[in-house]
Amino acid sequence: MVRLTVHLISKSSNYSKACRSESLQQYLKKLTHLNFSNKSIEDIDDLSMCRNLTVLYLYDNQISQICNLGFASNLTHLYMQNNNISCIENLSSLHKLSKLFLGGNIITVVEGLDELKSLKELHVEGQKLPRGEKLIFDPRSISRLSELETVFSQWSQLRLLDLNNNPVCVKPKYRDRLITACKILEDLDGKQINELSRQFLINWKASKDAKKKLDDGKDIKEQISNPLTTDFHVGPQQPFAHDRSSSRTKPSEYGKPGVTFRTDQVQGDSRGRRSRGIYIPVRTGRL
After folding, report:
1. Alpha carbons 190 and 163: distance in angstroms, whole number
2. Is residue 246 part of a domain?
3. Average pLDDT of every residue of the chain
């Protein structure tokens, strides 16, 4: 097994040129770029002495696990495409990481990116998956387009996104909706995003949302104005007690319940003033 170790780095040609003037420890401490692509590497050892590392090239190897990179808090570019990586993990401490290349691996779930607030480019194209397997996002199975919009909209620095050959690409309005969600995205699936087109899509979405809000408001108002009633039959009754001798009943027409009108006699109140009350109770009956 070939492991990327400090000892292996010491054998590199770059260190051979620098070893005359500085020790290995000094060299590793100053190291910012490390290129071990296409070296048949299968594992990453402890490289914590390289704490100023900003760019790491490990593509075209046989690495099966992302590990031992917790020290690299200054890392901005990580190239690990075309390996045997099946899980995106151990990246939470890479707060400055802006470009992550993981295409051509065997990843089935895009996860473990929650803490990468500086991420601008994510490459997960061309995963070597068994027939019938699909690439999904997040361990909670974020595979629907609406959920992808939510995830990507949280990456405020995302400028380049490549999802070519993934099932989500055939979803209705896939490109339009991601461009709207990712405010500063410049390139999607290898195609540049025109700013005029983006503004048109943003305006279209705002107009659509406003119309939906207006329609929802109308529905609520209609429900308040016309509350639902239960259709059941109630026998004739008088909702208000009164003297039937003083009532005048309007005959019902076509078999509909009649309406009873009552006018109370003129009465005096406690102060001797005269008042007249008018009540219009409705009598309901079976149609």
Report:
1. 9
2. yes
3. 76
